[in-house]
Amino acid sequence: MRIVVFGSGFVGGALAQEFVSRRHEVTAVSRRLRTDLPRGVAESVGSVHDSAFLKEVVSGADVLVSALPAVAGDDGLDTGVAVLLRSAEETGARLGVVGGSAVLPLVEGGPRQADTPGFPAWLLPRVEAHARALSVLDAAPEGVDWFCLVPAAEFGPHQPGVRTGSYRTSATAQVTDGEGRSVLGVEDYAIAFADEIDTPSTHRAWLAIGY
User: Fold this and answer.
1) Which long-range contacts (CB under 8 A, 24 or more apart) does 200-204 make?
2) Which of 29, 56, 178, 198 has a CA 20 to 30 Å removed from the CA of 166?
3) Which residues contact 202 (CB under 8 A, 6 or more apart)?
4) What is d(CA 210, CA 153) in angstroms, rounded to the nearest whole number?
5) Which fold, 2-210?
6) How far is Cα 60 from Cα 8, in angstroms, rounded to an integer?
7) Does pTM surpass 0.90?
C-alpha cells in the first residue's frame, strides 16, 4: 500500500518506521526538511493547507495519516483533519488520525479525563483541539472510511517506552492496567496503527490503545 503520513515528529516518525518495515510505500510530509527520517521513507516538504501540493502528494495513496500537532501556530488540528478528509473523499483513500487521550473517559461512563479534578490547565488547548478534530471526523461524509487511534494517557516523548509487540484496545474508555494507569510506548502504538491499516477493523470510530 502507499501511505502518506502528515507530520513526522515523535509519533509520525514512529508510524513511518513501522509502515516501511512492513514493506509499505511510505511518504512523510513535513513543513521543514528533516534528516532523521527512517531509511526507506520518502520525504515531501510542504503544507497540508497548500492545495496544489496536497493534490500531488496524495495522488495514488491508499491511506492518509494525520500525525499533525494538536496546537501549531494559526493552523488548528481540526482544520488539518478537515482538509485530509476532503482529500480522502476525493481520492478514495482511507484516513487514519492520531488522537488525544484526555478527550476520553478513564472508565466507561465517566467524565472526560480533561474534566476530572487536577487535570493540568495548560493541556486544555490540546484537549479541545483533539475534541474539535473528533467532531470534524464524526461529521465526515458517509463515503469516507476513517479511524482515530487514541494512545494512552501516559504517552509521549518524555516516556517513549520499549517495544513489546503487544497492546490492548477499548471502544468505551481509555485502556488502563490493574493499577488504573493508562500507559503505552510509541513503538507499540505504531504497531497498533499499522495493524489497523493492514487488517481494518475500526471504521468511522475511535479506538483507545494501551497496555
Assistant:
1) 200/94, 200/145, 200/147, 202/147, 202/149, 202/171, 203/145, 203/146, 203/147, 204/137, 204/140, 204/144, 204/145, 204/146, 204/147
2) 29
3) 147, 149, 171, 196
4) 9
5) Rossmann fold (3.40.50)
6) 20
7) yes
Q: Which three cell numbers stand for residue 192?
A: 497498533
3-state SS, residue 167: coil
Cα of 185 vs its chain's centroid, Å: 14
Phi, psi of 183 (to 5 degrees): -130, 145
End-to-end CA distance of the chain: 28
**Of 38, 203, 54, 52, which is closest to residue 137 (Cα–Cα)?**
203
- Summarised one tens digit per residue, pLDDT across range 93-109 is 999 999 999 999 999 99
* Portion of the chain with pLDDT greater than 70, in percent: 99
Contacts of 31 (CB under 8 A, 6+ apart): 45, 46, 47
Residues 6+ apart with CB under 8 A from 69: 7, 9, 77
